[in-house]
Amino acid sequence: MNAHALAATAQALVADHKGLLAMDESSGTCRKRFVEQGIEDSEAMRRAYRELLITAPGLAESVSGLILFDETLHQAHADGTPFVALIERAGMIPGIKVDLGAKPLAGHPGETVTEGLDGLRERLQAYAAKGARFAKWRGVINIGEQLPSRAGIAANAHALARYGALCQEAGLVPIIEPEVLMDGAHSLARCAEVTERTLQAVFAELAAQGVLLEGMLLKPNMVTAGAASPSQGSLEAVASATLACLRRCVPAAVPGIAFLSGGQSPELASAHLNAMHQQGPLPWALTFSYGRALQQPALAAWNGQAANVAAAQQALLKRARGNRAACLGNYQQAA
After folding, report:
1. CA–CA–CA angle 130, 258, 5 (5° rounding)
2. Contact (Cβ atoms closer than 8 angstroms) between residue 124 and residue 161
3. Which of 52, 130, 265, 270 is deepest in the core (most CB within 10 A)?
């Protein structure tokens, strides 16, 4: 493990108020989103869409790195230039999603554990050889009347930590993503409680596995009420609850925290991030690692038509610039 190189990459990913574009949807998820827009699902169309995202002019002004899916890492521009080379040429850092998805946790109905540790060492070595410099693994935590259980949190925290250690062994910066889902009608306070328990468990496991904090990033959920809750907190309430939780749980040695959007609308995800940057100095860089909240306007504008590429790229750039503005605390929701 090269601690200096890992720390340098982690710092570069959160430098200059930039964030990450998560474009690591599996083929199944991509298919679902294409079907929603009436777009033909094929490898050629997925490649064309990902080319659109990667080559958006000026994307590197707001985005430091791109999280890719395995298929995308091996794809190339229509002119034959590998996507990884295009990303690096633009001044961005290529990354890769390495988990194999959340599966039911045996003996614990309603809970999942993310799989993919078997053979991960070899896959990480191959990804690094292909040009990836960081990776991502998502653990999923559900909130319910009796959920999450201690076992559910522990299983996911342990998997995240083992993945993190393997990443650093291979020279890749691990993005640690414990996501407490917005599904349900739980209160903001309940989300805060579960998020705090989850992060405490994750950092305890990271310490046990010897993960270098300076060479990783955290990708958590924001603390929000459940999507079905009749009482949604204000921007300021969400920002305060989220920052309180993070200050209690995340060591200052972690270079940066890059939020997932978790089903929030593009505008709301930006507004929440902006509100956090208006609540005083923070011990870590606080930024975004959004998927659908960055991509959805672009996907809708493109709609599978080559003639719409420029308009789709402008829709992506608008969201990316808005989120960088949020990291500076000057996002305007109508922008």
Report:
1. 45
2. no
3. 270
Q: Where are the domains of the chain?
A: 3-327
* Cα–Cα distance, 176 to 160 (Å, whole number): 6
Full-model pTM: 0.97
210-258 pLDDT, tens per residue? Answer: 999 999 999 999 999 999 999 999 999 999 999 999 999 999 999 999 9
Distance CA 125, CA 60 (A): 26
At the second CATH level, the architecture of 3-327 is: Alpha-Beta Barrel (3.20)
Neighbour-count burial for 89-102, b at 16+ CB within 10 Å, e otherwise: ebebbbbbbbbbeb
Interval 179-188 mean pLDDT: 97
Cis preceding-peptide flag for 174 (omega within 30 of 0):
no
Q: Catalytic residue positions?
A: 177, 219
C-alpha closest to that of 224 among 196, 187, 278: 187
Torsion angles phi and psi, residue 75, rounded to 5: -90, 170
Local structure of 239: helix, strand or coil: helix
Say what the pLDDT of residue 335 is. 45
What pLDDT digit, counting tens, does each position of 116-162 carry? Answer: 999 999 999 999 999 999 999 999 999 999 999 999 999 999 999 99
Give the three-state DSSP class for 231. Answer: coil
Tokens of 211: 């993960």
Q: Which two tokens stand for residue 297?
A: 């306007």
The residue that leads in pLDDT, 304 or 27, is: 304
For residue 173, which phi and psi values (nearest 5 degrees)?
-75, 125
